[in-house]
Protein 1
Amino acid sequence: MAVLKINVPAYAKNMLWITSGSEFQQRIPETMQATLPAAPDGLTLRWGTATGSPLRYWSETTKNIIWNGHVRVSGHVDCTHLIRVGKMDMLILEVRGSLLPLNKPRLPSLEDLRKAPYEHDLFLENIEEAWYAFVLELDSPFADFTHHALINRQAVDCYGALAEESGGFHRLVGMPLLLESMTLYAG
C-alpha cells in the first residue's frame, strides 16, 4: 500500500482521479491524500474524469507518492489561441501528446555525455495520447517556437505546472498548465 499526497491549487481539487487500468478508478478526495492499493500495472493520475488526460504515471506503487502539479508531455501543437486578459495578451497551446518519463532530463547531463555516442531518447513512458493546454504570455520567447511547431507540425516536449489560483487562468481553460520549458524537434 502506498499513500498519495498532492499539492495543487483549490480549483484542481475536484478534477483529479487516480487509476490503474479499468480495475481501479478513484476520485482524489478533498484532503488531497489517499491510500492506494498495490497496482502491478502502475498508477496514473488523471484530469477531469477516470479516463481524462494523464498527468503523471508511477510504475512503482509501493512507496509514498507525491505530486506537485508538474506535467511533462511530448507531442504536437494542434492549435493556438490568442486571448487578451486585462492588459496582457496570452497564448494558449493545445498540445496532443503523451507523458514523458519522470527520469527524462530536459538536457543531457555530464554522465549522459560520457556515453558514446550520445543519442536523444524519444522513449515515452505511457503511450496513451491525450489533450493538454499550456498557457504563456504572447511576448514570451516561447511564442515564436510554438508558431514554428504548429506550422511545421514539429514534435515538442512541453514541461509545465498547474497555474496558481490567483492568476485566474482556470477560468480561461479547463487545464491551465503554465509553460516552463519547451524543446522543439527538427521536422
Protein 2
Amino acid sequence: SGADLTGAYMGEADLHGANLIKAHLQAANCNGANFQRAFLQRATLSSADLSRVRLHGANLSGADLSGADLSKAVLVGANASNAIFRSADLRMTDLPGANLQGALLIGVVFTKTVFRGADLSRVQATPDEFRGITAADLAGVTIDPPTLERLGLRDSATARQSRG
C-alpha cells in the first residue's frame, strides 16, 4: 500500500483486514479504531494515538510504533515480531498470544499490561522496562533463556523458555 495517512483522523474507523503495508501513519489519531486482521507490516505508526484500538490477529511485523500510545489496546494474537516500540505507552494493553519476537521495547511503559501467552523471545529491552513485572504477569509467556537472564527475569518460573 504505502499510503500516506500522516496526521489523519481515523478515530473509531473500521479498518478490519485493511492492507496498510508500509503505510505512513505518523501522528495519526486512530483512537478506538478496528484494525483486526489488518496488514501493517513495516508501517510507520510513530507518535500515533492507538489507544483502545483493536488489533486482534493484525500483522505489525517490522512496524515502527516509536512513541505511539497503545494504552488499553488489544493485540490478541497479533504478530508484532521485529516491531519497534521505542518509548511507546503499553499501559493496560492486552497482549495474549501476541508474537513480539525480536521487538525493540526500550523505554516502553508496561503498567498493568497483560502478557499471557505472548512470545517475548529475543526482545530488545533492558531490566528497566520490566521493573515491577512479576512472575504472575509472565504466566505462560515464551521467552528465550538469554533474554530472561538479560532482563533480570531468570527467577520467573512461570515463563516458558523457548530454544533460540
Protein 3
Amino acid sequence: MKQKIILAFSGGNDSTFLLEVIYRFTDRICHAVFFQTPFVSPKTLESVYTYLENRGINYTIIPVDLLEDPSIVVNQPDRCYYCKKYMFEELLSHFDFPGENPRFIEGTNFEEAVSEHRPGLAAIEELGLESPLRKAGLTGEDIARLRKEYSIPEGVDQIGCLATRIPYDTPITPEILKKIDEAEDFLRKNGFHNVRVRYFGETARVEVDSGELGQLGQSSIREPFLEHMTELGFSRVLVDLKGYQKGSLDLERKGLKK
C-alpha cells in the first residue's frame, strides 16, 4: 500500500499547485486538510469548500481557535511560529491512527523560505512536515509559469491571514479581525483585487493594486467606503499611494518598505 499524503492546504497559489500536481500527475493517495481559524475570512472558507467539493478531492476541515493561545494573541513578531505549531500539532494528532504512517506536507516555496520573514518554518521543521516546493527549489515565479503551462488554476484564497493586517504588539481580538474582513470585503465587492486594510486602532491604512488607486478615489466608491469605515469604527482612513505590497508591515519593521 502506498503511503498516504496529508497536505496542509491553505487555498493559496502554492498549496493549490501542489495539490493539483499530486492529483493530476501521480498515483499517490492525497488528503487535503484546511484549518478553519479566526484568521480565515468566511469568504476564504466558502471558496476552499467549493473548490475541494467541485474537484472531488478528499479533504477535512479542522476548526482551530488560535485565539486560545496567549502566545498568538499578544502578536509578537514570532506569532506565525505559534500559529503553525498550534495547527500542525492538531494535524498530527488528528491523523494519528495505529498502523498508519502518512507523509505530512505543506506548500512553502523556496523563495519564501529564503527571502521572507517566516518564523513558521521553524515549527514546520520541528514537527517534521515536508515542504516539497521548497525542496525542489521552486520560486513563486516558477510556480506561476508551471501553472500556466499545465493549466493549473490560481489558488482560491487571495485574502490570506487576516492577522497580518495587525501591527506587531497589538493584541489580536475577534472584533479587530471582523472589522478588517468587513472593510476589505466592501472593496472586493466593488471590483478591487489585492486589498489589505492595515489596522492602527481608529486609523485604517488601505492598500490596493497601484493600477486601482484612481478607482479608489472616485466619489462613487470613496464616499460609500468612508461611510462604511465610519460604521466599523474607523475615524481616519489613509490610502497607501505606493499600492499593495505583500508583507508591508514586516518590511516596515525591517526598514525595507519601498
Protein 4
Amino acid sequence: MIPVVYHLYDSSGKILGAIGVSGDSSCADHNIAWKLRHKLNLDYVPKGISPTQDDNIIYDITDGVSASGWGHSECSPGAAQIARELPKTHPVRTKEKQ
C-alpha cells in the first residue's frame, strides 16, 4: 500500500520533515497519521484546503465527482466519522506570530 504522508510543522509553520503511515486503508492511515503528528506537537499547519483550513481529509464525492476537487472516497463510515471529528478532538495548533 502507498502510505499517507503528512508534513511536520514547527511552531513557526516551517516544514521540518514528514511522516508516513501505511495500514489497512488510506482513511485509517490518515486518522492515525493526524493523531501521531498531534501527539508529537508538530501540527502547526499554516493553512489547508479543508473547510476547517487545515489538511484534513475531505469527503465530498457525489456521483463520482468531488465538489472541492480534493475529495477522497469514504473507506468506512467509522473512519469517516473519526476524520470529521479530528479538528475537534485533535485540532491543529495555531502558528506563532512572528
